[in-house]
């Protein structure tokens, strides 16, 4: 009988607690939503024929990049260098062999831009010229992570 009274008392206390909190203001809980995307980009996918720019670029559709993500969230991107992920922007040396057999090292920058619905990866020589010698090179693998804060109300 004591166990039954104890169980009834505990249930009563739990119900009283539920009724007491349901009359108060809704509780707000903040969290985040995160999505990732990964894409391998081959040498022939880079746009190189735009006369208004001195860089190569690839624009990818990404529906998770809403205006809320772009305005209030965080987007970071990486390029794989072997098994390591290098955060963008990433600058690395490119060794060009000239016609006379000599070598020229030019730093190359890989970066990205975002706007609602799309992410653009950019490859550019830091000497102001269009990247050269990219035909038949190995593909570059990119990974992007987007996080946006979300507020939940619990009644």
Multimerization state: single chain
Number of helices: 2
Task: State the strand order across the main sheet.
Answer: 1-8-3-4
> Based on DSSP secondary structure assignment, what is the total number of beta strands?
8
The gross shape turns out to be elongated
Portion in beta strands = over 45%
Give the low-pLDDT segments. Answer: 6-10
Radius of gyration: 27 Å
What's the story with the biggest beta sheet?
4 strands, antiparallel
Task: Please write the string of helix (H) and strand (E) elements.
Answer: HEEHEEEEEE
Question: Helix share of residues?
Answer: 10-25%
In terms of topology, how is this protein built?
Blueprint: H1 2-22, E1 27-41, E2 56-61, H2 67-72, E3 74-81, E4 84-87, E5 90-97, E6 103-115, E7 118-125, E8 140-154
What can be said about this structure in brief?
17% of the residues lie in helices and 50% in strands. It is of the alpha+beta class and 155 residues long.
């Amino acid at each position: 009988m004591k166990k039954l009274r104890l169980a009834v008392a505990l249930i009563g206390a739990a119900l009283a607690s539920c009724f007491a909190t349901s009359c108060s203001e809704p509780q707000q809980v903040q969290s985040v939503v995160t999505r990732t995307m990964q894409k391998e980009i081959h040498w022939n996918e880079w746009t190189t024929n735009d006369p208004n720019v001195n860089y190569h670029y690839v624009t990818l559709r990404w529906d998770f990049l809403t205006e809320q993500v772009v305005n209030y969230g965080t987007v970071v991107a990486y390029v794989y260098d072997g098994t390591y992920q290098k955060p963008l922007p990433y600058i690395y040396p490119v060794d060009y062999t000239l016609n006379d057999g000599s070598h020229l090292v030019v730093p190359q920058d890989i970066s990205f831009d975002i706007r609602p619905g799309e992410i653009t990866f950019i490859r550019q020589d830091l000497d102001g010229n269009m990247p050269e010698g990219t035909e038949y090179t190995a593909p570059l693998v990119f990974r992007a992570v987007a996080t946006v804060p979300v507020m939940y109300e619990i009644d």
